[in-house]
Amino acid sequence: MNAITDYPIHELMTKRWSPYCFDERPVNDEDLRSLFEAARWAPSSYNEQPWSYVVAKKENPDEFKRVLSCLVEANQVWAKEAPVLALCITSLKFARNDKPNRAAVHDLGLANSNLVLEAAALGLVAHQMIGILPDKAREIYQVPEGHDPMTAIAIGYAGYGGNLPPEIRERDAARRPRKALKEFVFSGKWGTTSGLVS
């Protein structure tokens, strides 16, 4: 379901969406490598590239269950149907000087944005989620101090969710709401809509 935009944007962004319903078809390794290559080329402060990923394919059930167990229960309900899960982790300090990296979470977001757009380009879908259990992820995967498990991504092909509760399938069928530009593009002072978009 392509987004309906108020102004023209690249078709790739209109195709990108985050479904809850996944097809059981596996994702091949070549496509997965392309997703993480796209993440690799995201911009980052001082080119630190502070992001890391822990990836599990459903074809490896034990590893998949380990990653799945790091999601909150509400996300496990639907994410268990995805063929690939990834935990997204960021380093909170600059490697260059060990000082706090205030851009670390922002940079992980940029890497994930590249990843989900590459997924759309390949005919895949990717659903990002904040609902994870960071302490459990840290323990299971021995994530070192100074690195923060932040989010997870379910990756695969859009499906119909036959195994999922009806309310989850209904969420996928609904249009994706978005704020109007006038609600967040300001000029002069906070809350004053820019003439550019009024």
SSE map:
Blueprint: H1 11-15, H2 29-40, E1 51-57, H3 61-68, H4 73-79, E2 84-91, H5 104-121, E3 125-129, H6 134-141, E4 147-156, H7 166-173
Antiparallel strand pairs: 1-2, 2-4, 3-4
Could you give a quick summary of the protein structure above?
This protein is α+β, with helices and mostly antiparallel strands.
Backbone CA Rg: 18 Å
3D shape: globular
- Our count of domains comes out at 1
- CATH homologous superfamily identity: NADH Oxidase
What does the model show?
With 198 residues, this protein is an alpha+beta fold. The chain has one domain: NADH Oxidase, CATH 3.40.109.10. It contains seven helices and four strands. The protein has a four-stranded antiparallel β-sheet, with helices on both faces.
List key phrases describing it:
198 residues, four-stranded antiparallel β-sheet
